[in-house]
Amino acid sequence: MHVLRRLDPPLVLAFALFAFVTGWFLTGLWHVWDHPVLPWLGVTALSALTTYECWRTARYARLDTDIRTFWRRLGIACAILVPGSLSTMYDSVGGPVLTQEISVPTQIVFGLALAMILTALLRLPTWRRTRGDWLRFGLDTGIILITAGVLVWHYSLSRIDFSASPNSTPLSGLVIIMVSFASLVTFVKVAFAGAGRLDRGSLYLLAVGVALSAATGSIVPLTADRPYLAPGLIAFPVSEIAAILAARRQRRRWDAPTPARPASRRFSLVPYISVVLLYAAVLQVEIPQSGEEARMAIAATAVTVLVVLRQLTTLRDNARLLDAVDASLQQLDHQVTHDALTGIGSRSAYTGELSARLAGGEPFVVALLDLDDFKVINDRYGHATGDALLQAISGRLRDRLRPEDTVARLGGDEFTLLLPGMTEADTDLLLHELLAAVQAPVLAGGLEMAPRISVGVTASRPDDSAGELLRRADVAMYAAKTAGGGRWTWFDPIMDRLADDDARLTADLRQAITRDELFLVYQPIVELPHGRLAGVEALVRWRHPEHGLVSPAVFIPLAERNGQIVEIGRWVLEQAVAQTARWERDLGPNAPAKVSVNVSARQLGQPGFPAEVAALLSAAGVDPARLTVEVTETAVLGTGVALEVLRALAAQGLSIALDDFGTGQSSLSLLVDCPVDWLKVDKSFVDGVTSDSPQAVIVDSLIGITEGLRMQAVAEGVETAEQAERLYRAGYRFAQGFHFARPLAESDIELLIAAQQVQLT
């Protein structure tokens, strides 16, 4: 159903005043008005209403600072016209007789209004000119004013007999024409220079209003004998209604910035046209008189024309050269404000946009996006593949945002969004759709990848700075990574405290190895049902000098984020291999048959990792068959890098264990593609094994899969005898958990082995 638009009182009032004043003026062409006070009051009210509309636009929060300043100055100019129209009314009706004369105070008021209009236009960001440009602009304006004044006087005002109308003078019409022409020249200059975020349609409306005001000078002959019809009665309303429409259009078009036109260095024809017009007027006067003056006028005109033609050819050549320079400057400006690789906004342009939005007071949302494990892609496949992935992701971001949104690349694999006028619910909906699109499989460098992105989100505050906004978004983004990645997280003030704690802990973690604060414990992996030792899993622990034992759930994610996991993982591998060698030497055939070591995705992505493991085993004299490499399914899925590394390790004789199966993306195809020897079923499934639950169904199903694929299944997190018995009946032959033993020091493992040997004998 079509819904009628709500009545707009200010606009209705503006058109009503305009219609009243215009109708009163037109009626006055054949009707004599004895007391022309009412139309002047209407003009004053229209000036006040124009001031109100300009100030409404100047206070519109969605506009940037420069454009709001422009409308504020224009509003001041309109406010000056309020006393100006009252002063003109007093000049017209305040004396003993009606007159069209304009007093000096009124002219001063008009001059102030004109100065404010010119200031508003020439202070726009796109009108940034050199001193030479300002000089040429002043000269062009002076030439136009002189030419217009002379021609209007010669062809119009000088031919009117004002003697029959002593209360009407040519000054009133001439002042309006001169003021209007000066404003019109400036409007045209700015329009061709580019209006930036000032709506170009609004600028054209203002220019049309000024042009129509100037055109009212042509009606002076009609009003010369009608002192009650001052030209200002029609000139003011025309320009003011145009200003009202322009201000309202700007508010409607706040989200459609007008790009500046390419700066084409064309020479101005205005001075030359003025010369032609003035010389034509001179020749019209002199030629009919003949004689020496006519010949001199003709000769001077001919020489002037030749000089002008000579100068035009020179200016044309200079313009071509300057156009080439301008093209280079525009290209340089594009390079500064756009990212060279992706073509979206650059960091500097984005921070500038942030500052402008903050200055304008408009609420908006900032989102910081970071690719998870992008370094692995660069290291394994090369920077060309990484660049192709960044280009694909930036294209997806750009295509799925609104026109008023901003996307930029901060550097590396970090992108950022600026989302104006979005609520939290709107933002969540947009990010849900955005992540679904961005994280879809993508073909980059001939390889299919499934990128994952972590996003930190924060809303602007009145006292924010660009740096503070990005800092909060960065903190929230790392919180998203800590939570597992591939998601977005809103900033919460508590994150600052946690981030400070993490920063201090990260600094301490960098020194943990050199300070001998890290150590290994080993959790037994046992055979069911009797519980004999089948192997051990090496687990790293951190004894902090102040905080005591720090949970691996705390410091392992820290190490993953800052890259220390590679150094820590290398240390764990070295310690575990060395301990395996000692057990072989000290315990002989009673040594643990398998020692499992957890390896992170970052370690798998390190160039030469299989060779590093082989060299370590060879130096320690350890049989590769004794070492098991444990990886999570999320570390293997995605880039395909990890699969190649695991195949190389398996070729050396190492066993491969897939840890925490079922908690990640759980692709069963991974069990076919990956050389898995051991499948470790996560504790979350084992917990429900003794009840009639979906977890129990999954546990029962997995044992059939592992048997069919000739793998060994290990149940993790077994805490009760009932769970152990149920798992054994389901077909599981290996398990680990607190029911059997907690993680133990290497000496306790030796005592456990000794105790089991005693039981066997």
From TrEMBL:
> Known SUPFAM superfamilies for this protein?
EAL domain-like, Nucleotide cyclase
Q: Which InterPro entries match?
A: Cyclic-di-GMP_PDE-like, EAL_dom, EAL_sf, GGDEF_dom, Nucleotide_cyclase, Rev_trsase/Diguanyl_cyclase
Q: Which UniProt keywords apply?
A: Membrane, Transmembrane, Transmembrane helix
- UniProt keyword annotation of Transcription regulation present: no
Every copy of the EAL domain together lies at: 502-757
Whether 4Fe-4S counts among this entry's keywords is: no
Cross-referenced CDD domains, in alphabetical order?
Answer: EAL, GGDEF
Q: What is this protein called?
A: Diguanylate cyclase (GGDEF)-like protein
